[in-house]
Amino acid sequence: MKKGWSTVIGLAILCVTLSGCVEKKPVKDEATKQELPAIETLKPNEKLHWIGNDGMAESVQFTDVPVVVDLSAYKGQPIARGDVVYFQTDAGSPRSGFDVARVVGLPGERVIVEDGQIRINGGKLEAFYGIGPLFSSTKLAAEYNRDIEIPDNEYFIVGDAWQRNFSGSFVEGPIAANRIKGQVVGWVDRHLYSDDPIPESAQVRALLERGLSIGMSDMLQLLNALTGLEEALTVPYTTFVGKWFLSDMPHMVQAMAMLGPEQTEAIIAIVADFSATSDIERIILDTGTLLEGEWVDRHERDTVLALLTAIEAKGDEIKVPEEEVTPEESPQAHDEQTAIEDTAALISALKQRDAEKVKSLVTASDYYGFYGLEEAQEIVRGFEANFDLETLRAVADPMGLSHHPAIGQYAYRLEDDGNNSKPQAEANTNESLMLTVRYESDGGVVYNTPYISYFPFAERMATQYIELIQGNKAEELTGFLNPDDLEIPVEVAERTIALYAKAVDLKSAAIRYVGGFDFVVEDKKGAFHPFTIVYGDGLMGIQDEYVEYPG
């Protein structure tokens, strides 16, 4: 009897020793849904992305349709298992330099893939994406076997259709967090290359009559329909497309980049025609700044360059002959050396944290003539918080499309030896790292960077936003959140207030600046919620997941 028990105990010890005998607790993900919501109206922080491969083609929502990426998703929340992320890659030579895939493993976890089953720290991943496709042979399935310890700040991400993955962790290994630029949050229900008939002229006119309120799927179909339409270059069409371009350049470019070459060329011609009847120099400058955004992929960059070429050609056609320009109309004399000296003066004042000098420089033009010492102090604060002032420098960017000496505008890239070192600045081109110096006809110098144009008002706006929430002032909050006269129901503001009341203790809450244009609302117990001040075209607004804008 004793011998029998010892045999059982020995077997039990042996069983525990052998990993195959003990099944670890499964890792479950019941929250992630395979289906994405259809999105019609894009927010400023969202972009369209054409996947361009079948790596996620287990669902119709990832096949021949644009997906919607929230570029700010991970500013206030961590990357989670099950998320479909938008990441930088050159693997598989995607035309855009970006791809999408699903997060399977998190930093510090051990991911084992064997015979088509994903395990996390030994436990089966019980989710629709935890099991790979049915392979035709054991040998083919074995090609996807992995046993990886995920380093800190890296993620194991795969496309749902494993055998069609040309990027992601099956190809590249774990993906660093700084390569993940956003989260896929929806799709646009429009299969651009389907057999759906292109709308006839009457249908196109009906869409035009609805104006800019039409949804993104109709907008894409409309752009497709304008190709080859005889009346496409008449005023109603050029006005509509031109106004959309001016009101929402990023999303317009993203939409154009998804169309075929013929369609893109047709839309570019329409935008160029409209520009000839508008402030064409301003349109050229604004179009050039699109290349400075983090959202721009390679195909979109090509579209912007083609747009600029067409618009500038129109500008040459309508340019006033030089002999017709009177001396009074001639711009103030300026050159590259003058711009370098004026830029150096600003950088020097910032390095010395001399708000009085900064005020003197930026108010030399009427453009910032209303700025006082308080605004200048905020400019210094913004630079101090986001740059190493001791090593801050402005590097000329003569090849940048914001550089237009002929009209008195010079472009510089802001760099330092800290967070904004040259390699990072080149990899993460965005508006906050750019400085333009523009000379007005009255001789004034206009310095343009978000830390001068918008940052002085960011904390005031953030404070006012939270004070309205703390005061339970839903009606006033509705007006405060109202972007570009969009009718926002008071229920939106009421829900925002309610969500904040659940998240933090509003009585003890205060705002805290994080960096860039990011803030958090934090109470005395440490509970907090993030939000961002967004800006553009002289306007500022709030980006907050607790604010659910209509559409």
Automatic annotation (TrEMBL):
It catalyses: Cleavage of hydrophobic, N-terminal signal or leader sequences from secreted and periplasmic proteins. SUPFAM superfamilies: LexA/Signal peptidase. The keyword Protease applies. One of its GO terms (molecular function) is signal peptidase activity. It comes from the Bacteria. Residues 67-185 form the Peptidase S26 domain. Keywords: Hydrolase, Protease. It is an enzyme of class 3 (hydrolase). It is found in: Cell membrane; Membrane. It is a single-pass type II membrane protein. Gene3D superfamilies: Umud Fragment, subunit A. The keyword Protease applies. Pfam families: Peptidase_S26. Its EC number is 3.4.21.89. Its main location: membrane. NCBIfam families: sigpep_I_bact (TIGR02227). Belongs to the peptidase S26 family. This is Signal peptidase I. It comes from Cohnella suwonensis. The lineage of its organism: Bacteria, Bacillati, Bacillota, Bacilli, Bacillales. The gene is lepB.
